[in-house]
Amino acid sequence: MVKYFNLLDSKPLSKQCIALGLTNFESVYEFVKQLPYGRNTNRSDYTLILKERKGTCSTKHAFLKAIALENNYEDLQLYMGIFKMNKENTSKISSILDAHKLDYIPEAHCYLKLNNVIKDITFNTNEAPIFAKTLVHEALITPEQIGDYKLKWHQAYLKSWLVNQNISLSYNDLWKVRELCIAQLSE
């Protein structure tokens, strides 16, 4: 469970939340959790989740970390990891993986940790995060690193992975397959 604390009305993001009737961290957490999955118009601007009423793993979790930081709550950590996105943990992409003869695609994913326990609210579910079983790498990040930094980190990992795999796809083709998968998740 996330820690309960009232938001400081002197902080910019907290002010926006309070204006929406979200006066404590628990209410912000639940509000962000229920937002539908969808890419924001600017992948680096996590504040857009309030205006656009949607978010990705990156924008949703970065927003919550930023609120925690504004309110001097340091225990909540923001991570990005690489996991094996496959049919078992992301069933909506099964047909895409099958069509390209892939068992999985390494996918970058952002999430929170509290007391070393993963908190993932990308989708509005109370289930344990299934991606964690196939997590192959993770790094602690700041909310400002969800844009270009995360993208370049993910792309570098994919390029390295392709070199070590016996897959007949180019990097550009693999990225296109990955984009198909992400589009499928948005539907």
Work out the count of structural domains. 2
Order of helices and strands: HHHHEHEEEHH
* Shape, per Cα inertia axes: elongated
For the secondary structure, the number of strands is 4
Question: Structural class from helices and strands?
Answer: alpha+beta
User: Averaged pLDDT, please?
Assistant: 93
Describe the sheet with the most strands.
4 strands, antiparallel
Strand order of the largest sheet: 3-2-1-4
Q: Give the N-to-C terminal Cα separation.
A: 29 Å
Radius of gyration: 17 Å
List low-pLDDT spans. none
The helix content, as a percent range, equals: 40-55%
How many alpha or pi helices? Answer: 7
Strand content: 15-25%
Describe this structure in words.
The two termini are 29 Å apart. The mean pLDDT is 93. The protein has seven helices and four strands; from the N terminus they run ααααβαβββαα. The chain has a four-stranded antiparallel beta sheet. 41% of the residues lie in helices and 17% in strands. The protein is elongated. A hairpin with a 2-residue loop joins β2 and β3. The chain folds into two domains: 59 residues, no CATH class; 111 residues, no CATH class. By secondary structure, the chain is of the alpha+beta class.
